[in-house]
Specification:
502 residues, single chain, 6% strand, 17 helices, CRISPR-associated protein Cst1, 2 domains, two-stranded antiparallel sheet, four-stranded antiparallel beta sheet, alpha+beta
Length: 502
């Protein structure tokens, strides 16, 4: 009789001749971020290298920083770090409104958070599975429930068992996160080098916050911009990875969590970007176009961060935000230089090639068809506006292309064969939207190359409406036309002073 083999679901174990590492990377993103922060604060390369002395040193540093922030005056720079801690641990002793202002009382209380387990029943740590004799709950764990909540805690416990390394990691997590005064962002990625790079950048940033407050970060990069830099420079070439950003606020009344992620193909796009000069110029000029300042010259929207976020996907907005942003920038063609148009067309095409394997040459027949039809008119502005009205709509574009083919054929010209591209171009959904966006870039660029004049009126009248909202365009306005796109402009020198981040 064959023996019965029982396969149990277990955590990965170390080889029999080795003891398990003291600090383990658990699946939970908060613990992972904290474990990497402990590693960097201890000056180690990998969490497996952490020793008991390292844990003690990091725990002492966290205790000193927490106490200093909790006792700081509200107008002191150190108080900004207390705001960070309050957003993540609002119910803990050092962040509570009724906390002691006596260092002799508060410091030992915080130090007890990280003491070795006392004599207590030992259970598996809820994060890494190691032996744990300390129970924590909402007071000490971001986004966890109160011990009074039903059906969420392990059976017959008054909290979640958390081992000492994970307790230290969770309070080290803010050091390596992308923090604001009210939220934090951590990263998880299958590639450990990407995780480490993100946390290392966070540790450098939070060191400045603890020393001089948020005012010391006048031009700080967003978590998305830091993530793209980490992906481009640290993801493996033969095994690109996606990343997930977890942004949260552990508020007592309205806690929230927002999750965004990149696709695996983003790594290839980021690495292909510097190899395509036109697309790279388009990336930089798009950042400048998205950059906004208020009347006092204060930056209210950093273009670098806007473009970086466009490569992330969330559940509450459609994908391919980079393509949508490029199309939005074409809202007023008279404000777009011919150089930017060519560069944005190259950027849009590179994105589609790397993310979807699309070759823009597939659109050449449709581009020629529409450009021939528009330029055949003595005053081509009317036909161009007809195209612009339907450029983003599948059925409307189908009717227009049928009309253009018929008109060219009746005029004795041979219209190009567009049957290879019409299925995808006219389709509903994401594929059609992406192809129609690229086609608009191709058609406008072709008209510019031919010298077709479809600009704003030289005198009087209104500017043409945008690509996305042009239903009320008056196509029979009198008056001469200026060139479709304005003259090329000089770059402002931003590219010569390239920043660290993408």
């Amino acid at each position: 009789m064959d023996p019965v083999i029982t396969i149990a679901r277990t955590r990965s174990a170390a080889p029999p001749d080795e003891s398990p590492p003291l600090l383990r990377l658990a699946p939970h993103p908060f613990q992972r971020a904290g474990a990497w922060a402990v590693t960097i604060l201890a000056g180690r390369e990998d969490p497996a290298e952490i020793t008991t002395d390292d844990l003690a040193a990091v725990a002492d540093q966290i205790t000193a920083d927490v106490v200093r922030a909790a006792l700081a005056a509200k107008d002191a720079a150190a108080y900004d770090w207390w705001k960070v801690l309050f957003a993540l641990f609002p119910n803990s002793e050092p962040t509570h409104a009724k906390r002691s202002r006596d260092r002799g009382v508060l410091a030992p209380a915080v130090a007890r958070f990280f003491h070795p387990d006392a004599d207590a029943p030992v259970r598996p740590c809820c994060f890494c599975g190691a032996a744990a004799g300390t129970l924590w709950s909402k007071m000490m764990l971001p986004l966890f429930d109160s011990p009074k909540a039903l059906n969420t805690l392990p059976p017959e416990t008054a909290g979640w068992p958390v081992c000492r390394p994970c307790r230290i990691s969770l309070w080290a997590m803010p050091y390596g996160a992308g923090v604001t005064a009210g939220s934090a962002t951590v990263l998880s990625c299958p590639e450990s080098t990407v995780e480490r790079a993100f946390v290392a950048a966070g540790c450098r940033r939070t060191a400045r916050i603890r020393a001089a407050g948020f005012s010391s970060l006048p031009s700080d990069a967003s978590p998305e911009a830091v993530t793209l830099w980490a992906l481009r420079d640290h993801a493996q070439y033969d095994r690109p990875s996606s990343v997930t950003l977890w942004t949260f606020k552990n508020d007592n009344q309205d806690p929230w969590l927002r999750v965004s992620e990149t696709r695996v193909a983003v790594v290839g796009f980021l690495r292909a970007l510097p190899t395509d000069p036109a697309a790279y110029r388009g990336w930089r000029s798009l950042q400048r176009a998205c950059h906004q300042k208020d009347k006092k010259g204060v930056v209210v929207r950093h273009g670098r961060d806007v473009v970086a976020r466009a490569l992330f996907e969330t559940a509450d907005r459609p994908p391919d935000q980079l393509c949508r942003e490029l199309v939005r920038q074409l809202g007023d063609l008279e404000e777009v230089s011919a150089q930017n148009l060519r560069d944005w067309r190259a950027l849009h095409a590179l994105y589609l090639r790397e993310m979807y394997g699309m070759d823009r040459n597939l659109l050449a027949p449709a581009t020629t068809l529409l450009a021939d039809w528009i330029s055949a008119e003595r005053n081509p502005r009317g036909r161009f506006n007809e195209y612009r009205k339907v450029a983003g709509r599948g059925f409307g574009l189908q009717v227009l292309m049928m009309e253009a083919s018929a008109r060219l054929y009746l005029d004795g010209r041979n219209p190009p064969d567009v049957t290879r591209v019409t299925k995808g171009l006219l389709a509903a959904g994401g594929e059609g939207t992406r192809l129609r966006g690229q086609l608009f870039f191709e058609v406008v660029a072709e008209l510019v190359a031919r010298g077709v004049e479809i600009g704003a009126k030289k005198a009087g009248g209104e500017n043409p409406e945008s690509f996305e909202n042009s239903d009320n365009e008056n196509e029979n306005e009198a008056g001469g036309d200026a060139p479709l796109i304005g003259v090329d402009v000089e770059l402002d020198g931003t590219d010569q002073n390239e920043e660290e981040y993408v």
